[in-house]
Amino acid sequence: MLLFKTAQQLDFELKRLRKGGATIGFVPTMGALHQGHISLLKTAKKRSKITVCSIFINPTQFNDPADFEKYPVTISHDMKMLIDAGCDILFLPSVKEMYPKGFVQTNPPDFGFLAQTLEGEHRPGHFAGMAQVVEKLLRMVKPTHLYMGLKDYQQQLIVGELIRKRRFKTKLIALPTMREKDGLAMSSRNGRLDADARKTAVQLSETLNWLKKQIKNPKSQIPNIEAEAQQRLQANPAIQLEYLQIRNAQTLALPKTKKEKLVALVAAKIGGVRLIDNVLV
Ligand code: AMP
Q: The pTM is what?
């Protein structure tokens, strides 16, 4: 695996590879890698000649400074996982490299409702920061394919919009959420859960699965199922529910009928750790 810390070095190597006709699959991450990240990389490896992974804990997407401070950093462990998974190139830029002194973002895209609802409401500025760094990374890597997880459901919808708005040639591939044996969605933040919180956390995926089954019942109604699912989580004082919502899977608008393609999304704090999960229903 090659390691580059500057966009210039990365560009030099990628130009050379592209000239040779290589397709490039890109997996952007914030590190503290787990099997969810590795599943993206493995699919990228199958579909593209060259795989690039980036690790960059992007300060501009953290609305909560304490969350940024506590974000796990496990670079040597990450590098080993990437080598074992057969990653070709790791891009590991510094904050200075991504945001040189005096850098100002011009003309940030407006994602409208898509970025204002759910996570947008609970994490003001998060999507603007995320889109800013993804746009920069896409300009640096110019990948043929971009691999992202459905785990961050709203994020991948917004990145899809970013690609359309900026007319990037990159094709976005969103892949299923990898889970622990008990159903908890893998996340870099799971390591911060203590034993009690870890046990409680499984209720998020359990509730989403329950909800999915209920939706399939022809007699059930969206508002009732949503309310009951919320109550199930709120009944546990160890869970601080931020939202549990059933939305249109493309637009995140409130659904009018069960005939629409739907997604149920949840965000909650458990033991001081903010977790998100979702399920297509
Ligand atoms: P992060 O490092 O949290 O920014 O995540 C980097 C990429 O990995 C994003 O596209 C995430 O959606 C994806 N990802 C995170 N967790 C999982 C998971 N459990 N399964 C699949 N993809 C994931």
A: 0.97
